[in-house]
Amino acid sequence: MAKAPTKKLAVLKTKENDASVEGFLQSIADETMQKDAAALLGMMKKITGEKPKMWGASIIGFGNYIYESPKTGRRGEWFMAGFSPRKQNLTIYMIPGFAAYADLLKKLGKYKVSGGSCLYINKLADVDTKILKEMIEKSFKNMKEKHFKK
Question: 52 with 43: CB under 8 angstroms?
Fold first, then answer.
């Protein structure tokens, strides 16, 4: 009997690793970006209660969950909250997306969104950090409730 063809699943390139978060932050050349990234690191550590881990070479993630793609059925591990200080901007990952945060986005300040879960800000001074904190808190709480039901 012939075997059914198997579909190859793509392997995620971005994975949790043991690289130093502090070393990565110290490698950021732009002083403002480095300070903003350190502030965001402190904020997310406090909000999540999770130890920050490097994901790939440039993303700092907090907490883990197993996702399953509704389109492909592919499963994988990903972080529940995270950010990446990039040359152009700070990218903050709001994993469940922004649909539930439209009211907060109106008050946030200067930002862009794309990809369903990426919030781009040039610097922390461009946004109301109290609103940003509230968004991250709600997003992380949403992820915990969705993926770790008791």
Answer: no
What one-letter code names the amino acid at 42?
G
Q: Is the pLDDT of residue 25 over 90?
A: yes
Domain enclosing residue 129, as ranges: 16-147
Over residues 52-95, the pLDDT tens digits come to 999 999 999 999 988 877 788 788 888 999 999 999 999 999 88
Q: What is the pTM assigned to this prediction?
A: 0.87
Q: Is residue 90 part of a domain?
A: yes
Indicate the number of domains in the chain: 1
Instruction: Report the distance separating Cα 135 and Cα 111, nearest Å.
Output: 13
Cα–Cα distances (Å) from 142 to 10, 48, 55, in that order, read 27, 12, 21
